[in-house]
Automatic annotation (TrEMBL):
<dbReference type="InterPro" id="IPR000639">
    <property type="entry name" value="Epox_hydrolase-like"/>
</dbReference>
<keyword id="KW-0812">Transmembrane</keyword>
<protein>
    <recommendedName>
        <fullName>AB hydrolase-1 domain-containing protein</fullName>
    </recommendedName>
</protein>
<feature type="transmembrane region" description="Helical">
    <location>
        <begin position="7"/>
        <end position="28"/>
    </location>
</feature>
<dbReference type="InterPro" id="IPR000073">
    <property type="entry name" value="AB_hydrolase_1"/>
</dbReference>
<dbReference type="InterPro" id="IPR029058">
    <property type="entry name" value="AB_hydrolase_fold"/>
</dbReference>
<dbReference type="GO" id="GO:0003824">
    <property type="term" value="F:catalytic activity"/>
</dbReference>
<feature type="domain" description="AB hydrolase-1">
    <location>
        <begin position="85"/>
        <end position="323"/>
    </location>
</feature>
<dbReference type="InterPro" id="IPR050471">
    <property type="entry name" value="AB_hydrolase"/>
</dbReference>
<keyword id="KW-0472">Membrane</keyword>
<keyword id="KW-1133">Transmembrane helix</keyword>
<dbReference type="Pfam" id="PF00561">
    <property type="entry name" value="Abhydrolase_1"/>
</dbReference>
Length: 340
């Protein structure tokens, strides 16, 4: 009898830890595999057209930073002792979108940091969710890599939304004056075009990421090239080339549309980190991608947090205003930074 009780006590002691251990082995059968990373434009053969449209040394030699989610390409322009500015590009076009604005700022004495977001241009494409956290962490790591403690941050389109999110998440890394150009972040789903909605669906994301889909896009791209005598627009061309030749690009775009800072960034613009800062909002009246009305919405959100927000309207400019109106943009940016 005594022995039986002893045995039972023993069992009761041993069973719960045993069950727990089996549960954990069942729940976590293996250590998860490390994240897969798809290569960037740097992996394409040197005769590929991307090397003439957007060569790796487009802004000078630059460098690569190695982070856990893959390599990140960056360049620095302008005098080393100039005021520091980070330029963030948008959804589909890499740092090439700043081709006229960046040299303009550098020529006026600013030190400019340009980089490609994950999944675009010369930065690797981790197979992960392209959400705000991924993007803001990428820039914080990059600033740490180049030993910048603080900088002015300027962003265009999705990069504008990212600028707001970066300021809200890492206010100590951001100077008091910030610029957003044709900024996304508040787009309502009803304003997204049908193409955009289709692109962001998980099914299309899977399909366009496949080898077959890329072969198809490559053929379209190549035949378009053969039949036209017009000089190619480098901006449109780089979008087609990435889509056709980079296995991670289409997934990065779709995930960014669905999970990224394109919409739902109200809280970043409302954050109290804006108190005491100044924001310059530049927007074109003919913007069909991020309608002009969003500029005023951004202005009133940050104003409510005690930020002095100024809106510069560029009459007749579309969403590509950094390419169509670079001089006005550079002049407005430098005036904003030097105003007392
Ligand atoms: C595309 O155009 C370029 C420049 O005109 C030419 O060198 C290249 O061979 C063309 N590629 C194809 C696939 O037609
Ligand atoms: C935001 O504040 C600025 C300056 O304080 C003012 O000129 C502007 O009208 C305000 N805008 C909104 C939308 O409240
Ligand atoms: C800023 O842009 C506006 C609109 O295009 C233009 O009228 C103005 O002259 C620019 N300001 C400066 C300082 O260049």
């Amino acid at each position: 009898m005594g022995k039986k009780i002893h045995c039972l006590t023993y069992l009761l002691l041993i069973i719960p830890p045993f069950l727990l251990t089996s549960y954990f082995f069942a729940a976590f059968p293996n250590r998860p595999e490390s994240i897969q990373v798809s290569p960037s434009l740097a992996s394409l053969p040197k005769q590929a057209k991307s090397w003439s449209v957007y060569p790796e040394d487009f802004y000078g030699v630059g460098g690569y930073a190695r982070f856990p989610y893959g390599k990140v390409k960056y360049w620095m322009l302008g005098p080393e002792d100039g005021k520091k500015i980070v330029l963030i590009h948008g959804l589909s076009i890499p740092a090439l979108i700043w081709k006229d604005v960046a040299p303009g700022l550098a020529a006026r004495g600013y030190r400019v940091l340009l980089y490609d977001l994950y999944g675009r241009g010369y930065s690797d494409a981790p197979q992960t969710t392209y959400d705000t956290t991924l993007y803001v962490t990428q820039l914080a790591l990059l600033m740490q890599h180049i030993k910048w403690e603080k900088a002015h941050v300027f962003g265009v389109s999705m990069g504008g939304a990212l600028t707001a999110a970066f300021t809200a998440n890492f206010p100590e890394l951001v100077e008091d004056r910030v610029v957003v150009v044709a900024s996304a972040g508040l787009i309502k789903t009803s304003d997204l075009s049908r193409t955009t909605k289709v692109m962001s669906s998980p099914l299309v994301q899977t399909l366009t990421s496949s080898w077959l889909a890329r072969k198809f896009i490559q053929r379209l791209t190549d035949s378009a090239n053969e039949t036209s005598d017009k000089p190619v627009d480098p901006i449109q061309e780089i979008v087609r080339l990435q889509s056709a030749h980079l296995s991670g690009y289409n997934a990065a775009i779709s995930s960014s549309l669905r999970d990224g800072p394109v919409r739902g960034e109200e809280d970043s613009f409302k954050s109290d980190v804006w108190k005491g800062r100044r924001l310059l909002i530049i927007h074109g009246t003919k913007d069909n991608t991020v309608p002009y009305k969003y500029a005023a919405q951004i202005q009133s959100l940050v104003n409510a947090s005690g930020c002095d927000a100024q809106l510069v309207t560029i009459e007749g400019a579309g969403h590509d205003l950094t390419v169509s109106h670079p001089d006005e943009i550079v002049q407005n940016m430098t005036k904003f930074l030097s105003d007392s």
